[in-house]
Amino acid sequence: MATNNSPKSVFIVGAGFIGLNVIAALVKGGYQVTALSRRKEHAAEVEALGASTVMGSLEDSDLITTQAAIANAVIHTATADHIPSAQAILKGVQQRAEKGQETIYIHNSGTGVLNDGAAGQFKADKIFKDDTRDDVDSVPDNNPHRDVDLSIIARQNEIGAGAKVAIMIPPLIYGCMLATPSPNSCIIC
User: Fold this and answer.
1) Above 50 in pLDDT, residue 148?
2) What is the percentage of the chain residues whose pLDDT exceeds 70?
3) What is the rounded distance in angstroms from the CA atom of residue 57 to the CA atom of residue 39?
4) Which residue from 116, 108, 150 is spatially nearest to 12, judged by alpha carbons?
5) Angle, vertex CA 166, rays to CA 126 and CA 9, nearest 5
6) What domains sit in the chain, N to C, each tagged with a CATH number?
7) What is the DSSP string of 98-112?
8) Which terminus of the chain is more exposed, N or C, with fewer CB under 10 A?
9) How many other β-carbons are positioned within 10 Å of the β-carbon of residue 6?
10) 14-43 burial code (b ≥16 CB/10 A, e <16)
11) Do residues 96 and 102 lie in contact, with contact meaning Cβ atoms separated by under 8 Å?
């Protein structure tokens, strides 16, 4: 288990497509990175980039909390819809806050949160600006990914100044969104 508490230490949950690219950039920038990996093949890729790994899954809340509690920054690039792993990170962030330590937590949400139900049938009236928090906060609470985002915001408010949280809404990978039979849900490729 990694015990690095360097001022430039980062813990990453999700060493897949997005995570590996983030890890490579952070290692190149001089950060000491530890990544949660559930498969040995991914662990080997992470270690080849110069980062450390801890073996586990999104269900390993205690492991995630422990790693989040020793890192100065945590980035969640795994699924945007896993509340227990996000809450485990925030538990570690809270432990650091109780010691007077700030933590940056970046959570990767998804563009599905901006779903307006149009399914390509009409042009939406709303244009979201990513530098205007009120725009993103105006998204309906029942949109995809929103339950996780709202749970993170609630915990951030409880923790206070020790939690520096950013919820990122990345673009669609390959620009693909497929409608599902339910008009209020989507599948993102």
Assistant:
1) yes
2) 87
3) 9
4) 108
5) 155
6) 9-188 (3.40.50.720)
7) HTT--EEEEEE--GG
8) C
9) 12
10) bbeebbbebbbebbeeebbbbbbbbeeebb
11) yes
**Which tens digit of pLDDT belongs to each residue from 104-119?**
999 999 888 888 877 7
The per-residue pLDDT for 174 is 52
Kindly tell me the sign of the dihedral angle through the C-alpha atoms of 82, 84, 85, 89.
Answer: positive
Q: How far is CA 154 from the centre of its chain?
A: 15
Single-letter code of the amino acid located at 132: T
Neighbours of 189 (CB within 10 A): 9
Burial of 62 (C-beta count, 10 Å sphere; 0-12/13-18/19+): exposed
Per the CB < 8 A criterion, the answer to whether 74 and 104 are in contact is: yes
CA-CA distance, 87 to 82, in Å (whole number)?
A: 9
pLDDT higher for 175 or 173? Answer: 173
| CA–CA gap between residue 42 and residue 63 (Å, rounded) | 18
Could you give the 3-state DSSP secondary structure of residue 2?
coil
CB 90 within 8 A of CB 105: yes
Question: What residue has token string 């110069």?
Answer: 50
